Amino acid sequence: MSQTAEKEANSSAMQVSDEVAIEIRNMNKWYGDFHVLKDINLTVNRGERIVVCGPSGSGKSTLIRCINRLEEHQKGDIIVDGTELSSDLKNIDKIRSEVGMCFQHFNLFPHLTILENCTLAPIWVRKTPKKEAEEIAMHFLEKVKIPEQALKYPGQLSGGQQQRVAIARSLCMKPRIMLFDEPTSALDPEMIAEVLDTMIELAEEGMTMICVTHEMGFARKVANRVIFMDAGQIVEQNEPEEFFNNPKSERTQLFLSQILGH
Amino acid sequence: MSDQSYVRTEMLSEQPAPLGETGVIKWMRENLFSSLGNSILSLLALALVIFIGAELLPWAIQPSWSSGSLRQCIDDPNITGACWGVIRDRFNQLLFGFYPQEEQWRPILAFFMMLTAVAPVLFDKLPRKMVWFSALYPFIGVWLLWGGTIWGPLMVVAGFIIGYFAHKFLTGVVGELAAMIVALLATIIWWLYGAGPVAEMLSAAMPIGIPAIESSKFGGLMLSITIGVSGIALSLPIGIMLALGRQSDMFIIKVLSVGFIEFIRGVPLITLLFVASVLLNFFLPPGTNFDLILRVIIMVTIFAAAYMAEVIRGGLAALPTGQYEAADALGLDYWQSMRLIIMPQALKISIPGIVGTFIGLFKDTTLVSIIGLLDPVGLIGTIQGSGDWNGIVWELNMFIALMFWVFTFSMSRYSMYLENKLKTTH
To answer: Which residues of B touch A (CB under 8 A)?
Structure first.
């Protein structure tokens, strides 16, 4: 099979189902007096790949951090996989174990080896036997193409490798949804590519993904919806082609001309 | 231009470094004589060392080991300096206080068992099964030192076993929290009302035991080690809990922790020791005989724990929030993320401070001499008070300082070893 044919075969697998994965209704959040998120409404179906972009301070990171309760929202509802996010600790832990997250600064655990980073949550949260957890971890480390680093510590790896380990660490929990919070912003250009490749592969397998990123090439390639945020609100959302070629709002046009202008 | 184009065809092999760049010469040039100022300082320091050595050594090296009293030293024309006879004469007392000679094998055995118990905690290469001995050691150690019937400590251990099984069987029935509370209550009720009578019954039926030694007989380095090691072993876990309490979201826990830390850290240890020796008796019901050494251990422990909490809080503050977030995002609960992610890193950062607190605690045990306990420093007065050694000062103090230094220096070395071992970046 030629590479293009393979790509096509893969994208046919990138089907979006009607099942709702995440539903956000009239969600509001304040930091003290500052209104960071204003009336957010968003429905994400299973298998959807959504890219969230917007200027810094627009609330896009805060939005996805609300989905696994790293930030608390004050008004409105967030329903993840049928479980409503409230202050009930049991629900929060349940949702967190179903939702994987990758951070801008990787946040690997520096005192544990790569393998231990990957097996920790399966062993302690999922109660997977150690042997089995290690097999799962090696499987995902192979998938992100760094099985040979398994016994090293995070500090010995390059940024791109660390981010790929972070992705593998999340995948080991077999999450149904993945959140990416600017996963490539702290990386050198050469390393951005290797991380994006991993994310594209993941998208092609049908993972439900929400990515905060400025990688517009990535958005064009895998997203089926692009969301543009400004001043704590969703200003525009559309299919990538339409979003990039024919942005409706002035604010979006200005933003796109700035980031695509170079 | 073709002049600028260049392609390397052969890679160069490594050459040995020039002679001046390796070995002693390089070290001296870099560390002692790197500049004019450094050279002057090096020479001055060398002169100082020689000067002190020239004064001290002739005083210290004296044929006075066998003299039996200070008078003998003074009368002997061969002895012009230190009178070391006092160390030989009172060596046993400096180590054991007034602990009966024929029972001194017990503290010695307890000491070596302590080293064995501590080893698997300090060095993770040793077999993990040894930790079982470490867990049992506190009971063995206390029994060896204070003696009495073996049933007493066994009944205390039984309390833990009762608690463990109560918890194990009840978790499935009434849930985790309720099981924990019931198990804790069962253990405490057993210790208060069950353990004493049962131990008496058993010792009446099967009198197994060793002679009991009163706390007032304890003294010397043995007393310092007993208080110091207990304080060290207890203050670290309490300090960790206090540090976590201070960071807690729960208001009451936070206020209690802050209040405890600020109060204990704000008063001198001496006052706490006076409270232990005098005041505590007023508050306890009449007739309770609460052992003085135990009271001192409690006070030393809470004092060190308050400092420990602040040292560990420093380590916690040094961790990036990303570590907490990553642990949360993976679904770990609070205790899991503290135990597996946060504490290992925070403690590693705090090692120098923790060991510093340990060393301080160990040296502060000498303050118990003020409330009349006969630790090595307390014994100085006793020894000086005897007719033979009236007036001796330097020899005793130097020897005691040396004894403490051996322990504190090993702690400091261990901390350096640990820091090195835990380094995960290159």
So the answer is: 320, 322-323, 325-333, 336, 340-341, 344-345, 348, 422, 424-426
pLDDT at B182 over 90: no
Q: What is the ipTM of this complex?
A: 0.89
What pLDDT is stored for residue B116 in this prediction? 92
Closest residue to A153, CB basis, from B322, B327, B425: B425
* Domains of chain B by residue range: 20-61, 93-99+216-422, 149-210
Q: Is the pLDDT of residue B409 over 50?
A: yes
| Half-sphere exposure (Cβ direction) of B141: Cα atoms closer than 13 Å | 22
Helix (H) or strand (E) holding B190: none
Distance, in Å, from the CA atom of B240 to the CA atom of B210, rounded to the nearest integer, reads: 37
A30 with A79: CB under 8 angstroms? no
For residue B2, name the pLDDT band (cuts at 50, 70, 90). low
| Residue with the two structure tokens 């180590």 | B95
Q: Do A169 and B330 touch (CB under 8 A)?
A: yes
Cβ(B219)–Cβ(B107) below 8 Å: no
Tokens found for residue B249? 């979201």
Find, among A178, A201, A189, the residue nearest to A51 by Cα.
A178
A198 contacts A218 by C-beta, under 8 angstroms = no
Residue type at A135 in one-letter notation:
E
Residue A179 has pLDDT above 60, yes or no: yes
**pLDDT for B173 beyond 60:** yes
CATH architecture, range B93-99+216-422: Orthogonal Bundle (1.10)
| Residues B354 and B347: beta-carbon distance below 8 Å | yes
pLDDT tens across B218-241, in order? Answer: 999 999 999 999 999 999 999 999
Closest partner CB to A125 (pick from B331, B341, B422): B331
